[in-house]
Design a protein that fits this description.
disordered N terminus; 2 helices; mainly beta; 4-stranded antiparallel sheet; 12 strands; 234 residues; single chain; 5% helix
Length: 234
């Protein structure tokens, strides 16, 4: 993982401009002594006022200042590596993808009328996942043996599998509910299998290695196996 460059560090390199200071002064009310040129309408010959070009060596050929970064300064558009995702995923979860059972899973039909979108950004170097989950048409109460009812499970399409990530349940009034934030490993789900949490030892690199082997879902008291489910794209 590359080290981040702070704004203080950039300032030390001369890559961050200071706040402009207005050094203009109001000379409109200054009373100049007689003979100092206060009332001249044009400058006398030889004073440089009418020179067509500046003499050599006076800086006449310096390039204009554009306000850009000095040479060799790093780009500052995104100095925070947290939001440099190594992969991103958009998932549409629908009721018709929900299955129940592990040996011979059957499609349950989920919770009719419900739908969810999951937008994930993963940084495997930090073992961090950021999420934007939008749930519509949800009814009943959230219900799951895990600590939340909104998950990423390990399981192929049409198959079930244990939850590996548990996200805060989407909240909101009315038709749409939203959950936004980031989680960083080590992960827990609150669901124990043989005394071990199903999130124990899970790494986000496993999703990147085989995204189609994972799915996102949400569970309702009216559809406990799942209200809506969507597979990660391959």
């Amino acid at each position: 993982m590359k080290p981040s460059i702070t704004l203080y560090g950039l300032a030390a390199l001369g890559c961050v401009s200071a706040t402009p200071v207005d050094k203009r002064q109001d000379f409109s009310k200054v009373n100049y002594p007689a003979g100092t040129g206060a009332d001249l309408h044009e400058y006398p010959p030889g004073t440089g006022a009418n020179l067509a070009s500046y003499p050599p060596g006076t800086g006449e050929n310096l390039p204009p200042t554009t306000g850009g970064n000095p040479p060799n300064c790093p780009a500052t558009s995104n100095p925070n590596p947290v939001f440099n995702f190594t992969s991103t995923y958009h998932i549409l979860a629908t009721p018709d993808q929900v299955v129940n059972g592990t040996t011979d899973p059957v499609f349950t039909g989920g919770l009719p009328g419900s739908q969810a979108t999951y937008d994930f950004g993963i940084n495997v170097d930090l073992d961090l996942i950021c999420y934007n989950i939008k749930l519509t048409g949800f009814r009943g109460e959230y219900q799951s043996p895990a600590k939340t009812a909104t998950h990423v499970h390990e399981g192929a399409k049409g198959r079930n599998g244990p939850p590996r990530l548990a996200f805060p349940n989407p909240m909101g009034e009315g038709h749409e509910r939203i959950s936004v934030g980031c989680l960083q490993g080590p992960f827990t789900t609150g669901l124990l299998v043989n005394g071990t949490d199903t999130g124990t030892g899970f790494k986000l690199s496993q999703i990147e290695a085989n995204p189609s082997g994972f799915f996102a879902d949400v569970h309702s008291s009216l559809a406990v196996p799942g209200a809506a489910r969507g597979q990660f794209p391959s």
